[in-house]
Specification:
rod-shaped, alpha+beta, 414 residues
Length: 414
């Protein structure tokens, strides 16, 4: 087509037929344009078929699934557009050789399309790499979306710079220098993106959040599993199946709770108390001690403790006509020992983690008796069942020790 005779072949025929020069020029341009588009379409069609079969053949012969992911993300199809687009850019000047203004516009348009095509190829490649890495266990919980978005932001910025440079007919370098004065505006526009980028790097390096982690972020009303981490936001699926979106930079600027440690520890903390009426606490009489010895979980304890206390009091000639004298057992202390033994023997409690039953500071309502332990099952439903089972027993057993649980509005018996 670069040969003059070939470019003006139709034009010369039309002139010989007696057609006017202007009309012959337009018809010649249309014929050349249709021929060029047809050639580009045919080449594009066959190139796509060839590349598709080539990649499909490789995918069948290799063990890795990376090539399958490349096909899924349409990389071969987009690469196939390079040859026909290159042909169009190369021969458009010949088609519009008699229309300088139109040639300039179309040539710039095709070059901008070439930049867009390049960016789409890059995006397909990055998406393929991201999808492939997600199939590997060590990268499954990493914020790969953030990294891919960062690369694409830089790629799009370069692409936009290049497109403007082509449209305005200046060099890319000069155009980039001229944009330096607008850097403050650009920083303002991409503020969240820049903050998100910095935050995503810190989150990844410090291993603060992974996909699949259970986090609680009260400021944003989030309480559930992290399902997506990208450059600008973190998506959390709450327990009621709603989705909460949190800015990525909020993970490093605000306080939140990550339950991963609990999930990986093999135990979920139980920390709950009941408030015992102070007026129901008293020293135990011998009669009460004998009755409490019928409770299996404290029988051995009472036998040993009663003997120890009796020997101490006899050694020190303690007057036991009054219970307050010397050493004594209380129903509250025996109840505490009972609960500790009960929790220690409970099959659903993790015995390798902290386990205790403790008395907290007195309150206007009474004295809290707290169970601090860890369930062996961390699943929420099972955890709630275990904790409920334990405190059902606690509430039902209080009366056996002549103790009372505080209830608001309930008068103290005289």
């Amino acid at each position: 087509m670069r040969d003059y005779k070939l470019k003006h072949y139709v034009y010369d025929i039309l002139i010989d037929k007696g057609l006017g020069e202007q009309m012959a020029t337009y018809i010649n341009m249309l014929v050349l344009l249709l021929a060029l588009l047809l050639i580009a379409f045919i080449i594009d069609f066959f190139t796509k078929r060839i590349l598709w079969r080539f990649f499909a053949g490789i995918a069948k012969r290799t063990k890795t699934n990376f090539d399958d992911i490349l096909i899924k993300n349409k990389l071969p199809r987009r690469v196939a557009h390079i040859i026909p687009l290159g042909i169009l850019i190369e021969f458009v000047p010949d088609v519009f050789s008699d229309f300088a203004f139109t040639e300039n516009i179309i040539e710039k348009t095709l070059k901008v399309l070439a930049i867009v095509l390049t960016l789409r190829i890059i995006r397909s490649f990055f998406n393929s790499v991201k999808d492939y890495l997600r199939t590997l266990p060590r990268y499954k919980d990493k914020p790969l979306d953030s990294y891919a978005q960062v690369f694409m932001i830089f790629a799009w910025l370069l692409g936009i710079y290049g497109a403007f440079a082509i449209v305005f007919g200046i060099s890319f370098y000069k155009f980039a220098i001229s944009l330096g004065t607008a850097s403050a505006v650009i920083l303002l526009i991409f503020r969240d993106t820049i903050l998100g980028f910095v935050a995503s790097i810190q989150v990844a390096i410090n291993d603060m959040v992974r996909i699949g982690d259970w986090i609680t972020f009260e400021k944003y009303g989030a309480d559930g599993d992290v399902i997506e981490i990208n450059l600008a936001t973190v998506k959390v699926q709450n327990w009621d199946k709603t989705i909460t979106t949190i800015p990525t930079y909020a993970l490093i600027s605000d306080s939140f709770k990550n339950w991963r440690g609990m999930m990986s520890s093999g135990g979920r903390r139980i920390k709950r108390s009941v408030i015992v009426r102070t007026s129901s606490i008293h020293f135990l009489t011998d009669l009460e001690i004998e009755r409490f010895k019928k409770i299996e979980l404290v029988a051995n304890y009472l036998n040993l403790k009663s003997k120890e206390i009796k020997e101490f009091n006899e050694k020190h000639n303690v007057d036991k006509t009054e219970l307050i004298n010397g050493r004594n057992l209380t129903n509250f202390g025996v109840f505490r020992k009972y609960l500790l033994t009960y929790v220690e023997q409970h099959s659903a409690i993790n015995k390798d983690m902290t386990l205790m039953v403790r008395q907290l500071a007195p309150t206007p309502q009474g004295i809290p008796m707290e169970i601090y332990a860890f369930s062996a099952d961390i699943k929420w439903q099972n955890y709630e069942y275990i904790m409920g089972d334990i405190f059902d027993h606690v509430l039902a057993s209080v009366g056996y020790f002549n103790l009372e649980i505080y209830e608001l509005g309930l008068s103290v018996p005289e």
